[in-house]
Amino acid sequence: MTAAQMTARRAGPLKGVLRAPGDKSISHRALILGALAHGLTEVEGLLEGEDVKRTAAAMAAFGAHVEKIAEGCWRVEGRGGFSEPADVIDCGNAGTGVRLIMGAAAGFQIAATFTGDASLRGRPMNRVLKPLGEMGARWICRAGGRLPLTLQGGNLNSISYRLPEPSAQVKSAVLLAGLGAEGGAEVIEPEAARDHTERMLRAFGAQVNVAEDSGGRRIILPGGQKLIGTKVRVPGDPSSAAFPLVAALITPGSQVTVEGMLLNPLRIGLLDTLGDMGADLAVTNVREEGGETVADITARYSQLTGIEVPPERAPSMIDEYPILAVAAAFAQGPTVMRGIGEMRVKESDRIALMSQGLSACGVGVEEGPDSLTIVGSVRANHGVLGGARITTQGDHRIAMSHLILGLASDEPVAVDEPGMIATSFPGFLSLMRTLGGEIEA
Hints:
By secondary structure, the chain is α/β, with parallel strands linked by helices. It has helices spanning 24-36, 50-61, 95-105, 118-121, 126-135, 168-178, 196-203, 238-250, 269-276, 314-317, 321-329, 350-360, 396-408, 428-434, and strands at 5-9, 15-19, 38-44, 65-70, 73-79, 89-90, 111-115, 138-142, 146-152, 156-162, 181-189, 209-213, 216-221, 231-233, 255-262, 280-289, 292-300, 308-309, 335-338, 363-368, 371-377, 389-390, 413-416, 438-440. Helix 5 runs parallel beside helix 6.
């Protein structure tokens, strides 16, 4: 039985060393590329959250042999492509999963029907469907490009597609479709979004060319390429690591180290921003693992100062703005976040829910169409009152962010629908308790 709510309350300092769960973005891609490849792919450190498990099940439905060997260790035996699934592909809450899988499936002469939970069925797919349609894919779906959706792929043309706004999901869907397109695919980015797909395609033997010019960043995938199974080591997810790190920064006397965290330059916007706010963060043991830079990050309790976050950082930290807003609630002076409109079309309208939740906990907030300003606590000592029950609309990051707030606020903070936390961070509760956090389910 899933708990109806979780409640976090202030306890002592947080102390300890941990390893963040495997990166969700890389976990999805490892399974999908493994299924598209010829031969065996071995994945170590796979995130075993609900979202990634849905992608694993989908790859099996498309004809790959997918097997869990041990905790975090999986094997994918690919057959060089997708076969038509016998049943509907249910992606649960996995927005990244469904968009990337649709891109991959579009390259084959098959029909596949996709659905998801209530949250995913409410999220528009038009940003992915537009370029796939230009390549020749066809579909039937609900109004607004919403699931359930039946996609017919095959006989794709090459494309040169300029992204209207930065989106690693749309870029990745086009590149994956390009594997099956006559002439491949080119994506032009106005601003660089996370580049895990490009890096991993190369690890699977593909040629991917990247060029920078005045028009943006061009990613070129030549046609007619064959992927070969490989070994993938998944680094710690910076989006998940953000929760214990920020908890340490706002809880007096705390010191927490996260080992093996991904330091991809397109994923460290939060670390840069917290550093600008005066956070005591130490980066040690920097190393290369599986084509990505990883390191150990230590966070110590800090007196934070509000800043204006550069809008160009948004693509590198779009999933971390909810927990940044929590850090900002304890900072002296306002923290201004602009250019974050994409937050409104995530698992929920994250701008609205963070604004409502923080306001209910006594934090001054100003909300704009694509902005959020955290004025800071109304209390003289920059403490946060807390004492609210937060409506999360089933959004895991909204839930975890407010639970972290509750660990440092004066009064307990409760969240509804906490079961959704397992989509991205299945060990969140036990991990935070191990560090000394008091969270009741």
